[in-house]
Amino acid sequence: MTALNRVQVHKAVFLMLVVLVQGDTQVGCVFGGSCVLPCRFQPNSDTILHWNKIFKTDRKKLEVHSYYDDQDQLGYQDPLYKGRTSLFHDQISGGNASLRLARVNLQDQGRYLCYASTSLNSQEAFVTLTVRAPMQSAPKSEVLLPCEASGLDDITWTFNHNQTILRRQAGQEKVVETEWQQHVRDLSESGSLLLYVTSSAQSEGTYRCTLRYADEEDVTHIELKILEDPIAGRLSVNIQRQSVMLNLLWSERATLSNNT
């Protein structure tokens, strides 16, 4: 027997877990309405679906909706989403894991993770949800400008890029600039600003909500347009919102700190 015949050849079988990650999908939802957060996966047996809302600052997540064993599993669903979420059950077998969200509110804004697992692989998809109010009727001449912050964020609201409206450092009370005190009605815990609107000449423009935490900066631009209705005797407000997240270098943050 040759040396080659005496060699025992062992075959090793490796189980490789494949996780496919997709880029963020942007979804705009109307306040008070319903919208769909899209998510697709490669269908196979043993389907498990999890929807979670994730936070960039404190790394926590909220359980939004779960599905496995061929049925919804809502035992750990966060109370904020109770009775407001549903899946397209007749389309799950075809790879549709999209989530329908009803009665959308400002707290729903943020980043969501769709996790889908089967016997074939696991997939992740991220959806960023923003809440918009295309047309608000404001009989009391008040308007809510949305912004989403955690309790750890420093907040700054500015108008037309050069006028500071207010500042609030994490854990402290807000400080409103003198010329804006008659216009600012309230600042919510989430950072949304309630303004008293007087006329288009004084209130129209670009509002910016800047959130800072550690080495991250989240900037929300809101374009405010006002339509005056002399017959109804009230104002209608058109809001367009755009959010951008920036990662700041420490040198840039030092420069920002020196300029404030």
**Tertiary shape:** elongated
Q: What series of H and E elements makes up the topology? A: HEEEEEEEEEEEEEEEEEHEEEH
Strand content: over 45%
CATH homology group of the largest domain: Immunoglobulins
| End-to-end C-alpha gap | 84 Å
Q: How many structural domains does the protein architecture include?
A: 2
Mean of residue pLDDT? 77
Question: What CATH architecture label of the largest domain applies?
Answer: Sandwich
CATH fold-level topology of the largest domain: Immunoglobulin-like
CATH class of the largest domain: Mainly Beta
Question: What share of residues is helical?
Answer: under 10%
How many runs of DSSP E, i.e. beta strands?
20
Count every helix, treating DSSP H or I runs of 4 or more residues as helices. 3
Low-confidence stretches: 1-21, 134-140, 230-234, 245-260
> Over all CA atoms, what is the radius of gyration?
24 Å
Largest sheet: 7 strands, mixed
Structural class: mainly beta
